[in-house]
Design brief:
By secondary structure, this protein is an alpha/beta fold. The protein has a single domain, classed as Lysozyme-like. 28% of the residues lie in helices and 12% in strands. The protein is built from five helices and five strands, in the order E-H-H-E-E-E-H-H-E-H. It has a five-stranded mixed sheet with strand order 3-2-4-1-5. Strand 2 and strand 3 form a beta hairpin.
């Protein structure tokens, strides 16, 4: 990879859970917010998505869609786009089993792609270790909220957004498997 990546940021689209929201719908929403991709990057990759800010979108049916190329700077976390990759799950806080599996597979594929290795399958533990070895954090969008009380922990009273509607840290600790209502706090 030519671009340095230090963070994978997981988002939710804030659509109703189970929504049939498409990647084109998200592109239209980003257009309305004034997002615009680089012309050359758009010509070279997914020209039908000239505004989308994410690199990947996982629809409610569990299909992983590419949006921006991973060498392209995203538009998904203000002030932190230059070295990050954005992955968005359609919904708000309840995701299908297929979405959870697609998110896990996306992380495995990204670990392989960023590391430049040709390993076709990495275990979840090996994927997490690969990101750690490369110095790449995996965070939720809400983890970029300010630590208002200065205690070193960003809790729900400090969140600017709930996005992605679950604790990415808990998801990672749990082995990148589907979170239940009790574990996604």
């Amino acid at each position: 990879m030519k671009r340095t990546i230090d963070t994978i940021v997981i988002h939710c689209s804030a659509a109703p859970n189970g929504s049939k929201q498409t990647i084109e719908d998200i592109d239209a929403g980003h257009k309305a917010r004034g997002f615009k991709r680089d012309r050359q990057a758009t010509r070279n990759f997914n020209p039908q998505l000239p505004h989308i800010g994410y690199h990947f979108v996982i629809t409610a049916d569990g299909v992983l869609h590419t949006a921006r190329g991973i060498e392209e700077v995203g538009a998904h976390v203000q002030g932190s786009n230059a070295k990050s990759i954005g992955v968005c799950m359609v919904g708000t806080d309840e995701f299908s089993h297929a979405q959870w599996l697609a998110l896990q597979n996306c992380m495995v594929a990204l670990a392989n792609r960023i590391s430049g290795k040709t390993i076709t399958l990495l275990s979840v533990a090996a994927t997490k270790q690969a990101f750690k070895d490369m110095g790449i954090a995996i965070k939720g969008h809400r983890d970029y909220s300010p630590d208002l009380n200065g205690d070193g922990v960003i809790d729900r009273t400090e969140w600017i957004k709930i996005c992605p509607g679950f604790s990415v840290a808990e998801w990672l600790r749990g082995g990148m498997v589907a979170l239940t209502k009790e574990t996604k706090k």
